[in-house]
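Final report, results section. Input specification for complex C-07:
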Amino acid sequence: MRDDVLLSGVRENAWRQLPRLAARTSLTPTMLKVAAFFLLLLTLSLGAQEMGREPFRPQFHFTPERNWMNDPNGMVYLDGEWHLFYQYNPEGDKWGHMSWGHAVSRDLVSWEHLPLALAEEDGVMIFSGSAVVDWGNTSGFGKDGQSPLVAIYTGHREKRQDQRLAFSNDRGRTWTKYEGNPVLDLNLADFRDPKVSWHEASARWVMVVALPAEKKVHFYSSRDLKAWERVGEFGPAGAVGGAWECPDLFPLAVEGEKGATKWVLIVNLNPGGPAGGSGCQYFVGDFDGNRFAAETQAAPLWADFGADFYAAVSWSDVPVTDGRRIWLGWMSNWKYAEAVPTAPWRSAMTVPRTLSLRKTPEGMRLVQRPVVELEKLRQEGARTFSGGSFLEAAEWLKAQADLAPLLEVEMTFAEVADKTAFAIDIHTGPDERTTLTCDPATKQLGLDRSRSGQVAFHKEFASGASAPLRFVDGRLALRLLLDTSSLEIFAENGEATVTKLIFPKAGSRQISLTSGPGANPLVSGITIRALRSTQ
Ligand code: FRU
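Structure output:
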């Protein structure tokens, strides 16, 4: 409305001046009118761009329109819709008044924002939790023969956390809190983040829930989602340098072994993560419906080695015909999440990732790949280097000026058996770059964001990260996803991932390749694709 008023005012004034202007130039009034019209369009579109500009707004990662977001919650698939609920503060851009925000997607790429699903009420905040489709209406919440969606979340009050239910009979559009809440209360200050799933073998619901201070998870089982019986527990184990939060538990296929599955127990941890602050660890083993038996592991296993992958949990009820286990994480870190320089929103989710397990000489490892749906974002006209020496690849990259700000980059190296470390720089301005270092001697992939753009908003933001690499047969494959304010690295076909926020200048990007003295690896291929925005 206001835009229309403004626009008609501008148009009228300019229009009245035209005959006088025409008299003073050699142009006819009609020619001037056409020129003025285009000038007006240009001005309006530049103005709109300037006004709508939100520096650092991710273009293909989920963000709330405004205000604060943390953990993904209640992820469930129903009737062609991927539901994403999330920890949300409806009243501000810092943590507080926790409620569940809500969005849905039909393709895991574009998201539709929906109204708040579960709001803080009577001093009880809605902390993290999960949602399931109650196909058999075991809860009795269903209506007219329809299976209800049931959310299982933590109710948080000062010094007291318990587990509660809410249900929806209209595809998640409206929710009713269960009048019998709480359904599980141990009279504890720290008892949260229930993740519920249907355990096929015992035909019961299973809940894994965290006791953060004790660095433990409990397993509960139920026939109706309302009455819960404790059946087992796990921990402390693995990384225990912080509170255990947001667990998940699911069976996962082992790559290349038909029909083979193992159980994966996810335990997010804050602080004490691999790059400082928040981190996501996992255990591989077996689960019999009551107990989880972890395979022996020498050290904690990290799902992601960057600083910005937390509270990751997976989608429930993905159809068997799809068969994937998909998750995403909160792309931030409790250390500095409230200080990141974005407005009017704070925080983004990572891209959805497909999970699998891979048998390696060191044991089973969690493998993550961006969901295939994201390939829709690829624009025409990929730039490709089809293989050659390191120097040839570096020269080719130098010639690829003005790369788009949204990028997917694939790089494969061969014969990396020597001791020469090499670096990939993503330049985002004359003196801005984010550096990846591949070091065959230490078998590490390093990520340095100390010169990546804005870093001073928090003293620990500039910190680096490093992930282990195997360089199988002297090869290394890297896939990078670059958005306006994040970099996700999938190394060795998803075996190691590094997720980091960056806050660089807007504009075009350039990539460079450098190495120290000594034998260089071969570059077997580079593909650079510009990605489309979903905004
Ligand atoms: C993890 C967490 C959860 C809790 C929620 C509160 O980031 O601390 O344990 O439920 O955030 O917002």
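Residues 29-52 form the longest helix (24 residues). Residues 1-19, 43-52 have pLDDT under 50 and may be disordered. This concludes the modelling results for the funded period.
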